[in-house]
Amino acid sequence: MVLHAGDWADVTLLDAVRARARQLVGVYVNNDGPDLRARLPEVAWVDLDGLRVAVVHETGPRTGRERRCVAAYGDSDLLVFGHSHIPWDTVAPGGLRLLNPGSPTDRRRQPHATCLTARVAAGRLGEVELHRLPPR
After folding, report:
1. Other CB atoms closer than 10 Å to residue 135's CB: what's the count?
2. pLDDT in tens, 21-31
3. Pairing mode, strands 43-48 and 51-56
């Protein structure tokens, strides 16, 4: 399964990822046009073997992020988000896990392009690994 927290840039990328993934859960973002917005939600919710997951692009500034995310997505176990292109892995008070995979294509101010892999079994999030990708 692929969880994609946005920055599609083009509907052809959405189609390419959907063709390769067994299942895709993705969201549209602030810069996406009507063609992507027609095919994707702003917030996606999925149950992964009992793990309640939300996917969203924007969570606001770093300061106060956990508090805001608990208020908005506190009924989830895991929130996957994007926008900043900066890897993030924290647990908010109450147990909500927040993950940002960074970006595999636009590393911005980061030293490496990145993505995350995670294992889910029996409703629990297991190993989460940040991968540094080779330069393009």
Report:
1. 6
2. 999 999 999 88
3. antiparallel
Say which CATH architecture domain 2-133 belongs to: 4-Layer Sandwich (3.60)
pTM of the model: 0.92
Q: Is the separation of the CB atoms in 54 and 76 below 8 Å? A: yes
Tell me the Ramachandran region of residue 94: left when phi exceeds 0, alpha when psi lies from -120 to 50, beta otherwise: left
Query: Residue ranges of the domains in the chain?
Result: 2-133
| Cα 29 from Cα 72, distance rounded (Å) | 17
Residue 3 φ/ψ region, left for φ over 0, alpha for ψ in the -120 to 50 degree band, beta for the rest: beta
Q: Which of 96, 128, 132 is nearest to 3 (CA)?
A: 128
